[in-house]
Design goal:
The structure holds 2 protein chains of 2 kinds.
Chain A lengths: L9 H4 L9 E2 L10 E2 L4 E3 L17 E5 L3 H10 L1 H7 L5 H12 L7 E8 L5 H6 L4 E4 L11 H11 L6 E5 L4 E2 L3 E7 L5 E8 L3 E8 L2 E5 L7 E5 L16 E5 L11 E9 L1 E3 L11 E9 L1 E2 L9
Parallel strand pairs in A: 8-18
Antiparallel strand pairs in A: 2-5, 3-10, 4-5, 5-6, 7-9, 9-14, 10-11, 11-16, 12-15, 13-14, 15-17
Chain B lengths: L1 E3 L41 E8 L2 E7 L5 H23 L12 H10 L4 E18 L2 E17 L17 E9 L5 E9 L6
Parallel strand pairs in B: 3-4
Antiparallel strand pairs in B: 2-3, 4-5, 5-6, 6-7
The chains are: A alpha+beta, B alpha+beta.
Chain lengths: 306, 199
């Protein structure tokens, strides 16, 4: 509920006074960024629908450009009722003295900057708590903890997601000792994912992840499985008579394993680049994995003498 | 550049329109799940009884800590929570010294929502936890059990026939706190969750 409107609905609150204070905790930590009190806009095909890698912002709160002097003065004037509620002994004279700090800025070059934070970061709210409510910033300067282009890149990086791979196997339901199990991916779609974080009219940063490689973990030791990782960007779909270059050849049956299966993991590797190299960076690739249970049996053959 | 502390109630009251968090679904969040900063706990937790009125009290189960900052944060949570109830029960508005905007408005609205109502009984704070500390900010969460409180019509009056929903189940209450230049921790915002505090 908009807190500024809350006084207007006091009549409704009387029906059920008290109770938990504040908004509910938010759900949906699928992406690494959920902006609060922010004007930053996040767009791009990598911003949703995929899976992030838990990348954390170095600092999950910051100041960003906010209202100009006239807007801020009006905002402060408009909430005078709260000022008097929170200052029971306040006088009109003191309120005007309080407003003066905002009035004095009208006509001066610069604008107010206000704090924002990443709600998806467990430290975000505490970090925001340590910032001032507003900071007056002359043009062409950035205050301490003010957002920079490098931090905007960080936000885009934290918001970056890639599709969760669907592991395709051949044979699919069950494999056998010494039989090549081909591995490839489904559902990857576009092999590049981008996120742009922008403060409209101020600055913008884009990061792009490109699917480069996949890694295969057979789920067991090398004496039980032989892994082939010449897979290209998304594995090699099974081709009858084709050369087996991407997948696993299990050398022992899985009957002695937990649940009698090997747990095969395929990880997609997406190196990350910053568009136009706006800031120096060295990001680790985004890596997202998926698993499949692979039961491996033995082919029993009987040799009969004729 | 000029930096200003917003709406530290007794000193400066600055009211900023921005800062309204989006309401949404509660997420399953418990004090145990939250990322805890380094903790320095030792010894047994203590239980304190704080009277906020002749027939209203708060039981506070506070974990032991040897870290003065942690202790100050746990005490700040307790002081603000009990102070708001004291305002409801006795009209004492000294809690205003412990609020800062925009949470200050939330606190004021919460107290005013009682209008001519009051409460009687016992509330309990337990599973207190400092979930994050960063520079001059912190978040403290605790389970709050208000199921033994009864809302009364008027101070010392009779219980209203339909008691509010919060008298039926404990919930998680979190406070985002800011340390003022005077070293006092004030609540700057609130969050709550419905899960994680079942007994």
């Amino acid at each position: 509920m908009n807190r500024l409107l809350s006084a207007a609905v006091t009549g409704l609150l009387l029906l059920d006074p008290g109770g938990p204070r504040g908004d509910g905790f938010q759900d949906g930590r699928t992406a690494g960024v959920r902006l609060e009190n922010s004007k930053i806009v996040i767009t791009g095909n990598g911003a949703k629908g995929g899976k992030g890698d838990g990348y954390q912002l170095k600092r999950p709160c910051w100041y960003e450009p906010g209202p100009d002097a006239a807007e801020m003065f009006k905002t402060q004037e408009d909430v005078r009722a709260y000022w008097f509620r929170m200052n029971p002994n306040g006088t009109e004279e003191r309120f005007q003295a309080f407003l003066k700090q905002f009035k004095d800025k009208i006509g001066q070059p610069g604008r107010w900057w206000t704090p924002a934070y990443n709600e998806a970061d467990a430290r975000g709210r505490a970090c925001w708590g340590g910032l001032d409510q507003f900071v007056w910033v002359p043009p062409g300067t950035t205050p301490p903890a003010g957002i920079t282009l490098a931090e905007l890149v960080e936000i885009a990086r934290a918001a970056l997601t890639v599709p969760e791979p669907q592991v395709k196997l051949n044979p699919d339901a069950k494999s056998y000792v010494n039989l090549p199990t081909w591995v490839w991916l489904g559902g990857v779609g576009t092999p590049t994912r981008s996120v742009t974080a922008s403060i409209p009219g101020v600055m913008s940063a884009t990061v792009t992840a490109s699917l480069q490689d996949i890694k295969i973990d057979a789920g067991t030791s090398s004496d039980r499985a032989e892994v082939r990782e010449d897979c290209g960007t998304s594995g090699r779909p099974y081709q009858k008579g084709g050369e087996f270059t991407c997948g696993v050849r299990y050398l022992r049956a899985s009957v002695d394993q937990p649940r009698e299966v090997y747990v095969l993991t395929v990880t997609t590797v997406w190196p990350v680049e910053v568009e136009d190299d706006v800031v120096p960076f060295a990001y680790d690739p985004v890596e997202v994995g998926a698993t499949r249970d692979v039961p491996v049996g033995e082919v029993q053959s009987t040799v009969r003498r004729r | 550049m000029i930096r200003m502390r917003g709406l530290i109630a007794p000193v400066v009251a600055a009211l900023l329109g921005a800062g309204c968090a989006t309401a949404g679904a509660d997420r399953p969040f418990t004090p145990r799940q939250a990322a805890a900063p380094t903790r320095a706990t030792a010894g047994a937790p203590s239980t304190e009884t704080i009277l906020v009125g002749p027939k209203t009290k708060i039981l506070v189960e506070r974990p032991a800590t040897t870290d003065p900052r942690q202790a100050a944060l746990l005490k700040a949570f307790t002081d603000i929570y009990t102070g708001m109830w004291k305002a409801v029960v006795t009209g004492d508005d000294s809690y205003l010294a412990r609020v800062a905007d925009p949470g200050g408005r939330e606190a004021v609205d919460w107290v005013l929502s009682f209008d001519d109502l009051s409460v009687r009984g016992t509330a309990r704070i337990y599973a207190m936890n400092v979930t994050a500390v960063m520079d001059g900010g912190a978040e403290v969460g605790a389970c709050v059990d208000e199921t033994r409180l009864r809302v009364l019509k008027g101070r010392g009056g009779v219980a209203v026939p339909t008691q509010p929903a919060w008298t039926r189940a404990a919930y998680l209450q979190a406070m985002i706190l800011a340390e003022g230049e005077d070293g006092v921790w004030r609540v700057k915002d609130f969050r709550h969750g419905k899960e994680g505090c079942a007994q």
